[in-house]
Design brief:
mainly alpha; 2 domains; two-stranded parallel ribbon; Ubiquitin-like protease family profile domain-containing protein; hydrolase; Peptidase_C48_C
């Protein structure tokens, strides 16, 4: 299953990802994630689900929204106010601080 987390959702969400969705099985064949037998005759083996409840951005925060989504997914946290547009300035500072600390820990 492919989950689409769209922070600028519209009625065109599924239509806008259709090209990528159609190419994905072929890419997976190339990298041998699945065998030819698994995909035989099936051009759409992956179900695409547009996830509901994703905080919506109103502009300018695409990168931070992606980072926040990834963080919440990896930590299995709910999408809460912390990753919505109103808090993007704070999130930018938090991520900058983390990157600075990681850089200094490596040296």
């Amino acid at each position: 299953m492919v989950r689409v987390y769209d922070s600028m959702r519209s009625g065109r969400t599924v239509a806008s990802i259709k090209d990528s969705w159609e190419r994905l099985p072929h890419l997976l064949r190339i990298i041998t994630w699945r065998t030819e037998d698994d995909l035989a005759g099936d051009l759409f083996p992956l179900e695409v689900v547009v996830v509901d409840g994703v905080p919506q951005q109103r502009g300018g925060g695409c990168g931070m929204m992606v980072l926040s989504f990834a963080e919440h997914l990896m930590l299995e946290l709910p999408f809460i106010l912390g990753c919505e547009y109103e808090n993007m300035a704070k999130k930018r500072c938090e991520f900058a601080n983390r990157l600075w600390n990681l850089k200094n820990d490596v040296e």
